[in-house]
Amino acid sequence: MKALFLIKSLDLHEPLGIMQISSILKNLGIETKAIITSEEKNLIEKVKNFNPDLILFSTTTGVHKYYLNLCRVLKKELKFISIFGGPHPTFFPEMVEEDCVDFIIRGEAEETISDLIKKIKKEEKDIKKIWLGDYPQNLDSLPFPDRTLLKSYEYLLPKGVRFFMTSRGCPYDCAYCFNAFNKKLTKGRYLRQRSVENVIKEIKEVKKNFYLKKVNFQDDTFILNKKWLEEFLKIYKKEINLPFYCHIRPNLVDEIIIRDLKDAGCYYAVLGLEVGNDYIRNKILKRNMSKQQILNTCKLLRKYNIEFTTQTMMCLPEENLDMVFETIELSAKCKPNHINLYFYQPYPKTELANYSISKGLFDGDFDRLLYTYQAESKNEIPLNIKNKEKFKLLSDIFRVCVKFPSLIKFIKFDIKYIPLNPISRILRTFLKGFYFIKYGFVK
What we know:
Blueprint: E1 2-7, H1 16-27, E2 31-36, H2 43-50, E3 54-58, H3 64-77, E4 81-85, H4 87-91, E5 103-106, H5 112-121, E6 130-132, E7 161-164, E8 167-168, H6 179-182, E9 192-193, H7 196-209, E10 214-217, H8 226-239, E11 244-248, H9 255-264, E12 266-274, H10 278-284, H11 291-303, E13 307-314, H12 321-334, E14 338-343, H13 351-358, H14 388-403, H15 408-417, H16 422-439
Helix pairs in contact: 7-8, 8-9, 12-14, 14-15, 14-16
C-alpha cells in the first residue's frame, strides 16, 4: 500500500504532525511520499506516477477549499481513498459530506489512523467515515517524525534548522484560540509533556543524520513546566549545546527562567503581546496578563541579549483606532527585534468567533477566511467593523511607529483626520520604504 501526503506549502516550517503520521504508516508497512503542490508544474502526472492507494490532507480553515478542489480533480484522474485531518475537519466534521472526502479524523490522529488503515487493508465494509480518538497520553511512545519525508524539498526550509515539539496542548483558554474547544473534544489529559530523555534522544538522532545548526522548539509555550524546563536546559546544554528558538508566555516569566534559557543557548524568543489595551487583552481575548508582565519580560530578554518577536493583532471586536495606537505604544516600549502583525480571523468554534457572530460582526461564512492572516499580505479584514480603510493604513505604518515612537502623535492625527490627503500618503509610503530598506521585513 502507498500513501501520499499533499501539502500546499511549507512556510519555512517542517510539518511535524504529517511527518509523525508518516512514521506511523511506515511502521504499518506502507510506503509514504510527500508532494509540495506549489512546487510542482505537473502535479497530476507526479501523483499518477506514484499511484497512491491513500491520499492524506492536513487541513486548516482557509486552505481547506484548496485541498477539496484538488482532491476532486484527482478523483477524476485516478482511484484512491482520501483522508482529511487537521483543525478544519476537527471543527467541521460535516466536511465528510463533501463528495471527494472518504474519511476524516478529528483531533490528533496518531493512534486513530492505525485502526482506520487496518480496516481499509482488510477491505472491511461499512467503515465509519468520521474518526475521533483519544489524545495520545504517553508522547514518548510515539515514533519520531519522519525526517526523510521532505528530502526533495529541503531547499524550502531554513538551512541547518530543524523543528521539535516537547509537549502538546495548552492550559489556557484564550478566546481566539482553538485550544479551549479542542481540550473538550475527547477524554484524557490535554496538556502532555515528553520526557527530557525522549526529546534529547530525538535531537541527537537528528544531529547525527542531518545538518543541524539551530533547534526550533514549536511548543505553544516552551516554559510551562518549570521543573521539566530546569532539568531539560541543563542536559540540553551539556549534550546538545546548539542555539535554540522557543515561544514563551509573559505571565510565566521570571529572571531565573530567562537567565537559564540564555545560558542553555536560547538566541530567539516569541511572545504574545496581542494588544495594548487592557480591556481587549483580558476581557475580550482572555489573555489574563498585564502590561507590566509584558514589559518586564521584554526588559529581561533585552538584558540577557535574547532577540525576540512580539505577536500582535488588530481589527478585533470592540477595538477602535485609539486602542490600536495603545498597541503601538506598548510595542514601542517593548522594543522588539521584530513584530508579527495580524488581522484577527474568527476561526470556527472559538469563543471569540461565536461572540463576533452574536454581535453581527461576522456572518459565519468560514469558507471566506484566509490561510494567511499577516496584515502585510493586504488581506481583507473579515469583521464588519468601522474604519476598515484606516485600519489598513495603520497596519502599513505600524512598524515605523514602533521603531520611531516620536512619529506616533503625527501618524495618529494623520490616520484619524486626514487619511486621504495625498501628501500624507506619500510621506507614509516613504517612511514604510525607508523602514523596509533599513530593517527589512520579517514575517
